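>> Question from a student workshop board

For tomorrow's exercise we were told to take the sequence and the ligand below, predict the bound structure, and bring the output to class. My setup keeps failing. Could a helper post the expected result so I can at least see what it should look like? The ligand is heme C.
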Amino acid sequence: MMRKILFALLFSFAAPFSWAGGGGELDSVDIDLRDREALQRGAEAFVQYCLNCHSAAYMRYSRLMQDLGIDEARLKERLLFAGDKPGDTMKVAMDPKRAKAWFGTAPPDLSVIARARGEDWLYTYLRSFYLDPERPWGVNNRIFKDVGMPHVLWRLQGLYRPVIETDENGHERIIRLEQVEAGLLSPEEYDAFVRDLVAYLVYMGEPAQFQRMQLGPWVLLYLFVLLGVLYVLKKEYWKDVH
Ligand code: HEC
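>> Workshop helper replied:
Here is what the output should look like for this input. Compare the format with yours to find the bug.
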């Protein structure tokens, strides 16, 4: 019996990791969360290229300053939009209803996206947009079919077209993407840029988890104190009975 319960517990913890990937083969990425400069670059990229549409409602700018070692002058110059204060969260100006009308789907909050999708998926996703004239934004994504997001990084990456192979059953398959127009960055520079951005997304998923985890010990402490009080009470009551 005990063993069954233990197994059930074990699997309930393991489950969230098994669906992290999915959807075609993924390129793997090495991320070092101790590399603060990479995280700073990632944070700046996030603000510049993603925050117009996606919020990060769990993330406060003041926390960024603390964790990533960004001073207030730099925060104001590089990260804060006019009118935002360091104590604010990374919210987005766009009205969700309008966004849905524009893109077909409202851009999701990205606070914990790294835990839902995994770092390899994100790294691959941001490098897998390709030209597709049938889509509203003129692009599709190799690992997110018919994605509603435009290729917001195309100026940096350049443009790619799919190289398609037909197998003996007549099924078409994209075997790789080929650059048709160069971007501002070389392919290697673009990969490094995306790696920093993904590192930032991974970091962002952690503090949210961290805050929730911090509550745990307090709940236990509370229960412990309660137990003590109840024990003393019980003793008091039974004293008169005996
Ligand atoms: C112009 C608006 C816009 C910008 C800018 C934008 N996105 Fe998106 N993004 C979207 C929309 C819309 C979707 C929903 C796509 C869908 O579900 O079809 C999306 C989806 C995503 C997803 C998939 C979420 C899921 O379903 O798991 C990720 C990851 C993502 N965006 C990351 C980014 C990152 C990183 C940036 C910055 C480089 C960025 N986005 C910039 C509009 C945007």
